[in-house]
Amino acid sequence: MSSNGQKVAVITGASQGIGAGLVAAYRKLGYAVVATSRNIAESQDPEILTIKGDISDRATAERVIAAGVERFGRIDTLVNNAGIFISKPFTDYTEEDYDAVLAVNVAGFFRVSQLAIAEMLKQGSGHVVQITTSLVDHPNSNVPSVLASLSKGGLQAATKAIAIEYASRGVRSNAVALGTIKTPMHPEEHHETLAGLHPVGRMGEISDITDAVIYLENAPFVTGAILPVDGGQTAGH
Question: Structural domain of residue 155, as residue ranges?
Fold first, then answer.
């Protein structure tokens, strides 16, 4: 660990979109960052350690946490941002769709979170944040997405369970439930339609999400929270 007691955040799915925004936000907060995704480029910033790999592979999760501890001496925060979203009528989902979504959204969360929390418990403090979707609590007939609800709904339940299991040991667990955010995942020509899904009449920006995660980072009395950042969708239409 650096002599100034610098904190360390691990961010999955870190190469683009919300993940890249989170890397920048945590660096701005003064954290060192371990950034991982399948195709992440090396960083010129000595305080950013990049690790290529598929987070659904246990070996990647083990490499990410071990390398973070070796380089920076500790793990303070894990943001489980890596995710796959496939919208299809329920009966159209293929075995490949199922395997892909469960691998990244569930297996990809499981092992890296176990390893990160084990490190956090050594120092008696830490924070795990899951990026989920407001569709878990507010399904929409225009966006059929049972696999998102199955996987991210599981993460939201786990978020609360982890919060309570470790509440007396200094480790917090929260989730940010997204509406539709302007990222490379959504082609420009769909933006107008996607904006219309939100009561506020626009899509979210990456900064809307990073601001929410940083709020949770700086909120020591908040644990087990599912924070909707979804332009009002969870409240109603």
Answer: 8-228
